[in-house]
Amino acid sequence: MPRPIQATIHTAALRHNLGRLRAAAPGARLWAVVKANAYGHGIERAFEGLRGADGFALLDLHEAERVRALGWRGPILLLEGVFEPRDLELCSRLGLWHTVHCDEQIDWLAMHKTQAPHRVFLKMNSGMNRLGFAPRRYRAAYTRLQALPQVDEISLMTHFSDADGDQGIGAQWAAFQRATEGLAGERSVCNSAATLRHGQQAEVRGDWVRPGIAAYGGSPDHPLHDAAQWDLRPAMTLAAKLIAVSALPAGASIGYGSTFTAERPMRVGVAACGYADGYPRHAPTGTPVLVDGVRTRTLGRVSMDMIAVDLDPVPQARPGSEATLWGVAGGGAVLPIDEVAHAAGTVGYELMCALAPRVPVRAG
User: Domain spanning 236-363: which superfamily?
Assistant: First the structure.
């Protein structure tokens, strides 16, 4: 039989989360962000749950081709724009919208021969300091684009660095407002955190919101708010079965480095999941896990193919019992991916994207 581990992508949860995000930003159009292979969920598997969006936002041309191959005829936005001049040929052929964040991309557009002008999103660096034109240079870039016959409509965008934290969006929002005052074009500034926290404000939500992690059921500002507080449902479940159960005497240790030693006799299970499956190697003893829907903890170091779990809270557990590493257990109990990530010192984004190719995945 196949190794007993499987990931499930929940189409109904994706639809629910999309609806929740629409309600959070009423009147705005919504990009479903499917970069990084739909945050590890798989573009083809996630598509049915996300096709109610107004457009798909992603990073590379291959992802755009995959979305078009699924029959999507609506807007597709390249969030980082094109990476070399010839990419514009595929933008023309596939009807892609693309971000412009540097002078070189404007130069390439000026040399591009196309029958249909391009829709572009001009990006401002309002304080994130990754991509985009500084506020003082933004109008000049807008003017250059406006003069090109290769450019049709120009939309205005930026990305908030602290929408999920105490610093908030204030300084960046003010910089964006000042630099774009009087410029024509639709606005897009809200990521997941800004959509959930500020989407009720018409001016902030603008014309397009760009939620990523929230569409997949992760909280963008965990641990301040968990997914349930935002009414988001997990779109991915990673579950395995116990392949061994043993009785551990007091004083015995578990795993590499003997980092966990039993203080009393206890029952221990071994789940068929490890860091080669995408589970975080540095998840410490105490990382939450569900066994037969009952919350318990991991013990010792994570191995390449196995994780030890504490079965004292689950006396009925046997080989073949379900171990839910994150997501929804068979009985309906939920273990948020953000909790597992927080225990491991990382974020839910990384766990979603790290799901290994060897793990079988099904849509459910």
Answer: Lyase, Ornithine Decarboxylase; Chain A, domain 1 (2.40.37.10)
